[in-house]
Amino acid sequence: MSAQSKAGRLRAAVLELLAQHERDGALPTSARFLFYELVQLGVISKERTGSRRPDQDMIEALTDLRESDQVPWNWIADETRSLDDYTGSPTIKDWMLAVLRQARLDPLAGEAPLILTESRSLAGVLRGLAKEHCVQIAPTNGQCAGFLRKEEYQVTSWNRPPPPENSAARTGSPSHSTEPELQSESYHQEAATQELPRDNHGYLHRCSKRHDRAPDMSGEARIASIRCQLAAWVKVSRRGKQYLNLKFTPVDSDD
Known about the structure:
Layout: H1 6-24, H2 31-40, H3 56-67, H4 92-100, E1 114-117, H5 120-132, E2 136-139, H6 145-148, H7 167-171, H8 185-194, E3 201-206, E4 217-223, E5 226-236, E6 242-250
Parallel strand pairs: 1-2
Antiparallel strand pairs: 3-4, 4-5, 5-6
Helix pairs in contact: 1-3
């Protein structure tokens, strides 16, 4: 394949983008994120031409790079497929030694947040960070009412009980919010105009709700070099505990 051909130039662009991810410590990533990054860079278009998907050329270039050992397979997260292994171990000793590697103490003392992402690809990219910081993560992938109502997923970052109703009026003391302490909206808007979030960082600020389905907070994040709009809804579990339901929406291009 000629390096000057269309396919060759695309392979070189994908390889350079992944090399940048490696330098930034932003691996693994996903094919979907790579596609949006290449769209932002003007290398490819997201408009469909003919019967081929817009990302088909990029996927073929990425597959070719992986099969030729230029890109390690574990650099790309694939959340659409999994292997369930129920084979067990040959001896009890082997099983104990295998599970012992997974043992770790909870540094957050039961207060770890649950990160909910809309897409499986984003959860795959964030899974390494979630493991590093000892938090929980789960993709919802659209309709998820039954999933969220399962007992094991009633987890929250804030375990403080809400104050009794009208307690401030009875005691004369100022009320205390059970929401996380956040800077004012004007503070974050000013910060956002000065500098975009660093990779794998973001910010949230409170926003006025124009209707019931509008988010309680909004902001921006940069995940694996992809700029995303960030929205958050304050939810309450069946146990009366608050948590944040987050939505990341990739932005096509940086301003």
